[in-house]
Amino acid sequence: MIAFDMRVKTYQNLNTTENSSAAVKTLQNIVKRLADELGIPILGVYYEDELPGVGQFSEELDEKLNYEAHICACFEWGNVCLNTLRERIKEEVNKKFNNTVTHVDFCEISPQFILEAIRDDHASYRKELFKKLKTLLETDKYALVQKVVPEEELNLVKALARARSFHADKSYTDEIRRIFSKDNEKRYAGHPVHYRLLATTTDMACRMAELLVQCLNSNNRLLSNRVDIVYNLNPMAAKGQDLEFAARRAIGSTLVLDTSYGFDAKKYEKEAASIIDTISDVMKRVGEHTLGVFVEISGRDNFCDTLTQKLADDLNIITLKEGKMNAVKASKEVAEIIKQSELSTYYNPKNFSVPEREEGYTSEEVLSLYRKWRISTLKNVVYKSYKEVNESIPTVTSSDDAYSELMNMVGLTDVKLLVKQLLATHKINQQRQKEGLKNAKQVLHMLFSGNAGSAKTTVARLLAKILATSGITKSDKLVECSRADIVGKYVGWTANLVQEKFEAAKGGVLFIDEAYSLVGSGNDFGQEAITSLVQLMENHRDDVVVIFAGYPDKMQEFLNQNEGLKSRIAFHLNFPDYDAREMISILELMVDKQDYELSNDARFKCEEIFANALKEDNFGNGRFVRNLLEQAIMQHALRLSEQPGEEYDKKSLKTLSSEDFIDKTHRLKTVTRRIGLEF
After folding, report:
1. Most confidently modeled range among 83-92, 108-117, 192-201, 379-388
2. Are the C-beta atoms of 454 and 621 separated by less than 8 Å?
3. What is the pLDDT of residues 181-225, one digit of tens each?
4. Distance from C-alpha of 487 to C-alpha of 480, rounded to nearest angstrom
5. Cβ contacts of residue 358 below 8 Å, gap of 6+?
6. Residue partners of 99: CB distance under 8 A and separation at least 6
7. What are the start-end ranges of the E strands in 238-342?
């Protein structure tokens, strides 16, 4: 806490029209008013006779300078804004009282010291101040870390090099370039933007935030290089003023708020809403002089979206993401980490590879790859007696992004149930193995039947990741193919093509879309492909999961082509068409993901469009919803561009109205739809 100590020569030297008591009250009012104008949280303003002991922290200085009176203001926390306050007070008080202010300074003291300094005969003041200081002494409602980011003079080249060290996303490096732009004035005049950070861990988010602070500080864009990090909120944070104090304490500096719930937000729904409202309200008041960094950690339940939406009209918040790297870069990164470890002599690049995956790898996932390599090396190479020790058992409720994404999808009840069953069975089997019990090897080949746009391909991609994360399969690779990829033009080609696909999918999932198209006529080689598939499904039942997908009626014809095929598919999953209510839910998810919103009239109109679409054949399910939204976004852009003026407010740029959605369901009968398309 910061105590503000102001001394005047004597009360008698103050304005002769006022007695000393009135003069002191005037001084108190000046301090309070200016602190409020600058948004500095103040606990109270006292003078020596009113509250004995408040000036004791400067007693040694008093003896040297022989001042006769004290005015002391206690603030929740100090920052560079106090420098401005000090100069404003000196200016106004000297103007009011004929240049009698001789000392204005700050001194950092503890709340306990203030309480101990107050004499027992002023119990009423002690009690009042104690209430205000209690929240500063201790809190169990959230965790708080306060740190000062080391001052370092950065330029654009150094800053970008630092960002590349943790493979920052383009959104992050673009912001660094904006900070160092020559178009900016190098002085503090407020915060043009605040930040929403998307990261995999709190540590990474703090690392990203601290570099931003150093960049801004190097351009004189901050009042202070202090950072307050608030995290691990619990339901008690919704009560009292603790959370508001935490935000107000960061005035003039940077507030990093981890928006992850430290509790079950569904169980404590009212408390969760109160926390969001409190943070939103206080940030609207202090955001002018407090840099807000709102952190969203992937895989955790959080309120970042809700909070940033509430603040959207008052603060300009931009999203910065943690970067990702491809498999080649990830492999090099892991190799560098290994070379710096004590196990470097055991590293053999021929025995280590990082699997390719479309979404890439975050820095945290690279560290996870290193940890897995380290554990494997210790068990299998360094301390070989542990080679047969079982690995830890994954939980049924995985926090993996793919699992969460699948569970949050609309409908798909049977699919979700199967995934839970597979994870639970894997967990129990590992426990049985630990107890020396036998387990039958389960074949996981599947058949997905459903109409166009019913999310078959999307589910297959998510399932590949879920099976790998849980340890059921060795890799999250998904090899997608269709008839053209596995049916050859000449005799003998087909079997080789099918074999190549199985080799490519080894350890993961082989997804065959429009599988019914393998059912041919005459002299084509579709039947040869089916025969080869049946044989290889048996040969690779332990290391490849095969998923067939297609229309329900045609897939039945496909199964009838080979008795062995039907017997080798363990799970038959139906992907039913969506009803109008589910299609509205899908639309709302898509709209939110693209940072738009629906007006009420737009939602009603879409319900009518979906009701009409359901009466038609082959309307496309989720694909139909996606096409409708894409057309609405273009129509929205056209509507705005035809309005007078070139500037549009944020609300109009985000809101899709009923006139943007055009009902084209009467054309559906003439449109040919492909199946298995992701939405």
Report:
1. 192-201
2. yes
3. 999 999 999 999 999 999 888 788 888 999 999 999 999 998 888
4. 14
5. none
6. none
7. 254-258, 291-297, 317-321
